[in-house]
Amino acid sequence: MRRDDFQVIYWDTSAILSALFKDRHSDEAQRWAHREGIHLVSTLAYAETCAVIARMQREHLLADLLIKAALEVLEGGPWHRLSAWPEWKIIQTLSVKWPVRGADLWHLAMAKSLQKQLPELFLLTFDTQLQAAAQGEGMVSAW
Fold it and tell me: Which of 22, 29, 62, 107 satisfies CB 3.0 to 4.6 Å to 18 for a cystine?
């Protein structure tokens, strides 16, 4: 793979959930999951995903077998777990610039913080507001 083709993909929760459960973005999420590169998932995205899966289980929205399969894919997917946090000043700056929810602001700031050392990084999200903010920050994301 050429250096120009190398990708570092920061997955937000919406992208992970689309990879785990069938929705209108699932095909796109699956294509990204099979791309070469480094796939990153933060502790926040992991926690949010686990919370959604647990809620689905509590509310009996899926059979236990499907819940177990989703957790297995979450654990064994293409993602490298990231134990890091966004820079405080970046959070503050982006909060004024983009009208996104708190968790989405955290994902945007985390990706922006990482992008300082990994300029090829981009944010993969299927949330339209976060998508617009990521594009505005030069972190082109798919779809």
Answer: 29
Check if the beta carbon of residue 108 is closer than 8 Å to that of residue 98.
yes
Q: Using a cut of 0.90, tell me whether the model's pTM lies above it.
A: yes
Q: Give me 126's structure tokens.
A: 């299927």
> Is 141 a member of any domain?
no
Residue 24 is classified by DSSP as T
Which residue in the block uniquely carries the two structure tokens 């689309």? 18
Confirm whether 42 is domain-assigned.
Answer: yes
Domain count, the chain: 1
To the nearest 10°, the Cα dihedral for 21, 24, 25, 28?
Answer: 110
Range of the domain at 90: 3-136
Q: Sheet containing 38-42: give its strands across.
A: 79-82, 38-42, 8-11, 121-124
Q: Summarize pLDDT for 101-128 with one digit per residue, the tens.
A: 999 999 999 999 999 999 999 999 999 9
- Say if 67 falls within a structural domain: yes
Element (H, E) at 32: helix 26-33
Q: Is residue 47 part of a domain?
A: yes
CATH number at residue 8: 3.40.50.1010
Query: For residue 81, what pLDDT band results from cuts at 50, 70 and 90?
Result: very high
